[in-house]
Write a structure and sequence with these properties.
The chain has about 210 residues and is mainly β. It is built from 2 helices and 9 strands. A hairpin with a 2-residue loop joins β3 (about 65-75) and β4 (about 75-85). It is elongated. Mean pLDDT is about 80; it is low at about 10-25 and about 35-50.
């Protein structure tokens, strides 16, 4: 009879070894309404108070990354975005749903020139290939640097890179274990310094 062996890897912080359910619907209920609320409640403070963008670089990986930027001061804007990847095949999957919100500090004015960003993020992932499968949740904060070029009165190009410190609760196992062998499931909780932004996006300003 096949046995499931669960190993809890205590890396950082307290870990009781008990399992916690990873509910993707819960993240959808939390992240998406927050982003929608930011769209609705933004107050126009300038002629170009809102910029909606799509990340062209993320699309190359099958990930849809879109966001909005609200002007809240002469050199300050509020950014909210989400990453969504639904890809799932028999031998490969890269499903994820992550929401981010933060503040951008612009050198000159919003949506022009260089900026520094700080943000918080949370989401879940389900990735793997023929050999390994990882599923878990991630939450943390980070910082970024970017630059925005005006292409037209209503269009701009933004490049941004960043990294952050994240709490990761991960469950990983082999992709396939024969029924006559024991399956080992490893669970871990840890803090990790991870790259969190690599964006080349096009924005439409309103």
């Amino acid at each position: 009879m096949k046995r499931y062996i669960i190993i809890s890897e205590k890396v950082t912080g307290h870990d009781s070894g008990t399992s916690q359910t990873i509910d993707q619907d819960s993240f959808k209920r939390i992240i998406l309404p927050v982003i929608a609320l930011l769209f609705v409640c933004a107050t126009p403070l300038s002629a170009q108070f809102r910029a909606v963008r799509v990340d062209a670089l993320a699309l190359l990986t099958g990930t849809f990354h879109a966001g909005v930027d609200f002007t809240i001061d002469k050199k300050l804007s509020l950014d909210a975005s989400f990453y969504w990847n639904p890809l799932r095949f028999d031998t490969f999957r890269s499903k994820l749903l992550v929401g981010q919100t933060g503040v951008r500090f612009w050198r000159f004015e919003p949506n022009v020139g260089s900026f520094l960003g700080t943000y918080i993020a949370a989401g879940n992932y389900d990735i793997g290939n023929r050999h390994r499968h990882h599923k878990g949740i991630i939450a943390g904060l980070g910082a970024s640097y970017g630059y925005c070029w005006m292409l037209d009165k209503r269009w701009s190009l933004t490049a941004e890179i960043g990294a952050g410190l994240y709490y990761v609760q991960d469950t990983h196992r082999k992709y396939f274990t024969p029924w006559d062998e024991d399956e080992i499931i490893r669970r871990s909780r840890k803090l990790m310094l991870l790259p969190s932004k690599a964006e080349i996006g096009f924005s439409c300003l309103f």
